[in-house]
Amino acid sequence: MGHREQVLGYLSKVAPRAASNADIVSHTHIRPHQQVFQITKRLMDEGLIKGRRVGKEWLFTAGADH
């Protein structure tokens, strides 16, 4: 399973709760943190996950943005 699938799988597992990039790193062990940031940004741009910024932190949830 690739990193992209790991992120999607983790977000599906914790749904409907939101997860931060730090949560995703902690549970998937994908390193470095910057790689998780790039993956979540790409998935959000593709409409596969939802994301919102709260202060300085991004929170992500599974599901398309439709």
Key features of this structure:
66 residues, Arc Repressor Mutant, subunit A, globular, 3 strands, single chain, alpha+beta
Description:
This is MarR family transcriptional regulator. There is one protein chain. The chain is an alpha+beta fold. The protein is 50% helix and 21% strand. It has a single domain, classed as Winged helix-like DNA-binding domain superfamily/Winged helix DNA-binding domain (Arc Repressor Mutant, subunit A). The chain has three helices and three strands. Strands 1-3-2 form a three-stranded antiparallel β-sheet. β2 and β3 (57-62) form a beta hairpin. α2 (21-28) crosses α3 (33-45).
Q: Taking Cα atoms only, what radius of gyration do you get, to the nearest Å?
A: 10 Å
Extended strand count: 3
Distance between the termini: 26 Å
Which fold name fills CATH's third level, the topology?
Answer: Arc Repressor Mutant, subunit A
Number of helices: 3
What is the strand content? 15-25%
> Mean pLDDT score, rounded?
94
Element string (H = helix, E = strand): HEHHEE
SSE class = alpha+beta
Largest sheet: 3 strands, antiparallel
- Share of residues in helices: 40-55%
- CATH homologous superfamily name? Winged helix-like DNA-binding domain superfamily/Winged helix DNA-binding domain
Total individual domains: 1
The CATH class designation is Mainly Alpha
Low-pLDDT stretches? none
Protein name: MarR family transcriptional regulator
Helix-strand layout with pairing:
Layout: H1 3-14, E1 19-20, H2 21-28, H3 33-45, E2 49-54, E3 57-62
Antiparallel strand pairs: 1-3, 2-3
Helix pairs in contact: 2-3
